[in-house]
Write a structure and sequence with these properties.
single chain; mainly alpha; 3 helices
């Protein structure tokens, strides 16, 4: 054993694992929920972009309905 070597190599990964779990526990963000929320936000941004340029009334009506549905889904994800 080399001089100054005070810990087992096997202990080091376990310590890193414990530190990571402790850090993740502080945030406690569900990755699936965060991913779904991000997808809905991106869809809302796309619909908003399209609403700025749309000229046909039927298309505008469809986009408004889509935006309303996406906002409903976003509220549902936030409640979970």
């Amino acid at each position: 054993m080399a001089r100054g070597w005070g810990r087992n190599e096997e202990d080091l990964p376990a310590d890193k694992e414990q530190a990571r779990e402790k850090a993740e526990g502080a945030t406690a963000v569900d990755p699936k929920r965060a991913s779904r929320r991000r997808g809905i936000e991106l869809s809302l941004a796309r619909v908003a972009e399209q609403l700025e340029t749309v000229t046909h009334p039927n298309r505008r009506e469809g986009l408004l309905a889509a935006r309303q549905e996406l906002e409903r889904q976003l509220a549902e994800v936030d409640r979970e």
